[in-house]
Every structure is written in C-alpha cells, then in structure tokens.
Amino acid sequence: MQVAELIEKDLILIGATAIEDKLQEGVPDCIETLSRAGIKIWVLTGDKMETAINIAYACNLLNNEMKQFIISSETDAIREVEERGDQVEIARFIKEEVKKQLKKCLDEAQQYFHSVSGPKLALIIDGKCLMYALDPSLRIMLLNLSLNCSSVVCCRVSPLQKAQVTSLVKKGARKITLSIGDGANDVSMIQAAHIGVGISGLEGMQAVMASDFAIAQFRFLKELLLVHGRWSYIRLCKVVTYFFYKNLTFTLTQFWFTFYTGFSGQRFYDDWFQSLYNVIFTALPVIIVGLFDKDVSSSLSKRYPELYKEGIKNMFFKWRVVAIWAFFAVYQSLVFYYFVTVSSSTSQGSSGKMFGLWDVSTMAFTCVVVTVNLRLLMICNSITRWHYISVGGSIVAWFLFIFLYSGIMTPYDRQENIFWVIYVLMSTFYFYITLLLVPVAALLGDFLYLGVQRWFFPYDYQIVQEIHKDEADDSGRTDLLGIDNQLTPDEARSYALSQLPRELSKHTGFAFDSPGYESFFASQLGVYAPQKAWDVARRASMRSKPKPKPNKIN
C-alpha cells in the first residue's frame, strides 16, 4: 500500500476496461421454481460477501423474511489478531471463533426448526472461515447447520473449497448433488458432484468439457431437471420394476412345475422359449416405454414443480412398490400354471389324444407372453402408436415363431416333442377359451389395484392428470424446447424464422430469394416475425448494379 501511494500519484486516466458480470435472463424465476420443487440450492462463488449477498437477493435465494446466519472473518477481533502477524495464533483464534459461531448458529437454528411458524434459515460464510469450518473436527457441525438452512451462500471460496463443500454434502449427508458452473474455476466442483452441468457461456468451454450435461443458459436447468429429469426417473423406475415382474412371473411358472416332478430337473418350457422370452417376445415394448412414456406434459411439469418431490422421496422405487410387483407376479404365475394345467387335464385334441407336457407348456407360455405384454400397457401414462405396434408386434412375433418352430422338423432335431403342437392346440376350442380367460383372470387383480390406488391413494401426478384431463396436449415442439414465453424479442424473431421452410435460393445464396424479406415470408406463413429497421437497408444494398460495358478494342 505504501508503494502504491508513491507510484499512483499525479496520473492521467486515459481509459478503463472491465468485464460485464451480470445474471442471465430467467435466473431468479428458475431458482425460485427449483426451490418449490424441493431442491436446495447453494451458491459457491469467488465474489466478496457484499456482492454474493446482492446476487443471492437478486436470485430469490435470500429475502428479508429469512433468518440469516453470517459467519465472516471481517470482525474487529480477527483483525486485531491478524495485525500481530503470528500465523499460528491467527489460525488458532479464527478456528475458535468459527467453532463458537457454528455452535451458536446451530443452537439457534434448532430452536427455529422445532418452532411451528419459524422463519426460513440462510447461512452465509466466507472462504477464510470456510477453510477452518471444513476441518474434520468442525465439518459435522457445518453440515448439520447447512442442512437445516434453506439457502447457503459461500463467498470468497477457491476452486478447491468448492469441491470440498460438494464432497461434504455428497459423502457426509449422502445426498444426490448437482453442480453447475460456466468457468474453469468450476471444473473441480463439477467433477466432485454426482451430476455436473456446464454452461457454454463467455468464459470458455472448460466447464462444458468436464460436465455430464451442457446447456446454453442457466434457465434451461429447469427443463433439464423438472421435465427431462422427471420423465427419465419415472421411465427408469417402470423399466426396472417391469423387468423384475416379467422375469419373476415367467420363472415362477416353472418353479410350481418342479413340485410335481419331484425336483427332478425336468424343464417346463422348451429351451428356445426361455432363450427368446427376453430377447424377442417381451423386449421391444419396454424399450418403447423407456423412450416415450411421460405422465404429464412439459408445460405442466414446469407449472407444478412440486411433482419433482416424488422423485426426491423415491416414491416409484421403494420396497413397497417392488413388493407389490412381486405379489402380482406370484399371483399371475399361479393363474398361468394351475389354470392351464387343471383345465387341460380333461381336454383333448381333435384326434382324441390327451394333451401332453409340451401342449400344456406351450399353452401356458402363450398366456404368459400375451399377459405380460398387455400388463405393460396398464402402466403407461401416454400410449402412442409405437406402444400398440411394439406390443402387438411382440405377440405376433411369438405366434410366427411357434408356427415355424413347431411346423418344421429335421432328422437332427432333438425337440420332436414340440412338432405340430401349436397346430393341435389351435384346432381345439379349448385354446381360444383359455387364451381369453387366463389373461383376464391374471390381470384382474392388477386392474382392481390400479383403480383403487388412483381413486383413493393417488400420486401427485395423477391429481394433475385429473385436473387437466380435458385439456389438449400441448407438448408441441415449442414446448419441448422450453422456449415458450421466456425468449427476448430478438430470440423470438430468430426462432420464428427458423421455423420457416428452408428453400435455398438459386441466385443469392441466402435462405430466401432476397435478404431482408424474412418478415414478409413469415407473415405469409402465419409466423409472427416483426420487421427490423435494417431490412429496408439490406434490400437497398442488394439492388442489382448495372453491369459495366466492355471496353471496345480497336
């Protein structure tokens, strides 16, 4: 400071340069929406405390109704110790002060936490105090205090401290963490979290290269989490539980058969039936569900961010959900085995012969394939033509296979017992009655359970479905891209122009015959694209100039 006073004197200011650092559009609304979804948001920034607090207020992370716990190293007592210059004493004193502040704030937070109408809590801590708060002896206290707060702001933190705070929540609290940043100083934090999101902004691409997902603006995080994240969670839960159900159902039918064979190892199904069950006969429908199923539209997902809390509570993958699937798998396997075996004991083919093992097993397997595929449609919230094609195609694939497999026999075929089985079965009235009644009896329990659950114990998304069941589906292209009413006028115009047909000009190389006529073409197609002031200038600049006359050569 003394050297600066000697040098920076009698200077003439020629100019100044600076980097504009401001919030992107839609950030406050995005953060408020994510908070309503039950997501706790922490701000880890290198800005000084005053700037960080102002940013938190601008982002709706802090408000005047909150009780704010501020742990800062900018106190008179700490300054007095720092003036002495003893580093050991400084470290010991700051650590003791941080410990006192953490204990005081934690005790006060517990009182507010147990009160009925207590205010929301917020923690603000600077980097110097955070360095000591992350000490093994204090980090548990810091974690408990932070988890009781609705918002946490850490200012003047280094990239390493960002990663340490993320790891503290990730490992200490065993919470799912997501880090989002746009600069190289956020890379360690992004890599430390379960999920890293990079913003491709003006600060380079380092954060994007180190992240799992990349977005252009912070506000798109709402679509990433509340729309696509929710849909992915629900789809994964359905796919996993359905795989468990269909394989348990298929396996248990063979398990009941072993009680009647003395556990001799005699198989109930043909080897090819078992091999192709998961590969062909039940594979495609569950893939379609994993790709296309959605409970509510994207606009409703953003309109009701509280729906995201079902995923936080893991409502669709609890042990209770798995137990219900297992119960109905046991029930259906009993229906498949005993209904078919008992009814076939008095049945006979057109030739008068009694049905044998392979006739019964083929009949049971046909019922399993039909029922399991139809059961998938009952868990779909949205059914498209691809669902019908996949389910119908899987059932047709089974019949095509069994027609060929049981209709052809070679001298080297060891499965002569399967020969002509399906044709014998289909020549009887018993086959069609069983194919109709067994799936109905097997799915009756599921149908009753789903009806009772939806009427008396509905999930949140089912309530939203009932509220908006008479509304048209608004999941158009504009809504899927998340650009509904959040665009600036320039962005809205650019998007409107992007929807126009791209007809390459033969003359100018532009997308239209003449530059500057975009607004005119847009209006002809019913797309609103306001005319720009420079459109006239562009058209004037592109007027054809008279060609110069060639010089005459004498």
From TrEMBL:
It catalyses: ATP + H2O + phospholipidSide 1 = ADP + phosphate + phospholipidSide 2. Belongs to the cation transport ATPase (P-type) (TC 3.A.3) family. Type IV subfamily. Its EC number is 7.6.2.1. Pfam families: PhoLip_ATPase_C (PF16212). The lineage of its organism: Eukaryota, Viridiplantae, Streptophyta, Embryophyta, Tracheophyta. The keyword Transmembrane helix applies. Keywords: ATP-binding, Magnesium, Membrane, Metal-binding, Nucleotide-binding, Translocase, Transmembrane, Transmembrane helix, Transport. GO terms for cellular component: endoplasmic reticulum; Golgi membrane; plasma membrane; trans-Golgi network. The chain crosses the membrane at residues 239-260, 272-292, 319-340, 355-374, 386-408, 420-444. It comes from the Eukaryota. Its cofactor is Mg(2+). Mg(2+) binds at D182, D186. GO terms for molecular function: ATP binding; ATP hydrolysis activity; flippase activity; magnesium ion binding. It is found in: Endomembrane system; Membrane. The keyword Transmembrane applies. ATP binds at T45, G46, D47, R156, K162, N185, D186. This is Phospholipid-transporting ATPase. Gene3D superfamilies: HAD superfamily/HAD-like (3.40.50.1000). Residues 208-458 form the P-type ATPase C-terminal domain. It is a multi-pass membrane protein. GO terms for biological process: Golgi vesicle budding; phospholipid translocation.
